[in-house]
């Protein structure tokens, strides 16, 4: 049995298409920083001064350690050593462990992890916040 072109499903691809890097001021890492959506190729191409990393589900290990490692690997391949600020939306065990285990590499790559000590209170809800000036 041979498969013809009409009998096969196209493979789902999350690869970033080849081309020059894109420079942005601020990038929000989508889908709770899931490795299926963001990988090393993403960070090689999408270069930003600020990356906002969401994820507060400890059971799902958000944000993904693999995404955080991908940032380090992707940034290591940039031609310039521009400063990058990583802004986690929530404190998490994954983020704390990654920060401690890779702190020296973060410094070498000029990556700063922003920890917020400010809190915004709105009606019955309060949450951590930070101010970003572009």
TrEMBL record:
Q: Molecular function terms in GO for this entry?
A: actin binding; microtubule binding
Q: Which InterPro entries match?
A: MAP1
Task: State the Gene Ontology BP annotations.
Answer: axonogenesis; dendrite development; microtubule cytoskeleton organization; regulation of microtubule depolymerization
Can you quote a single GO CC term?
Answer: dendrite
Which domain of life, per UniProt? Eukaryota
Q: What is this protein called?
A: MAP1B protein
């Amino acid at each position: 049995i041979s498969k013809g072109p009409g009998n096969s499903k196209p493979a789902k691809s999350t690869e970033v298409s080849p081309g020059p890097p894109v420079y942005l001021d601020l990038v929000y890492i989508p889908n709770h920083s899931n490795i299926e959506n963001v990988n090393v190729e993403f960070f090689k191409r999408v270069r930003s001064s600020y990356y906002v990393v969401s994820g507060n589900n400890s059971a799902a290990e958000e944000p993904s350690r693999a995404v955080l490692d991908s940032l380090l690997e992707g940034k290591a391949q940039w031609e310039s050593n521009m400063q990058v600020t990583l802004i986690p939306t929530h404190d998490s065990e994954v983020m704390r462990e990654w920060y401690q285990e890779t702190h020296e590499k973060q410094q070498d790559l000029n990556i700063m992890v922003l920890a917020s000590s400010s809190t915004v209170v709105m009606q019955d809800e309060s949450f951590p916040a930070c101010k970003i000036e572009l």
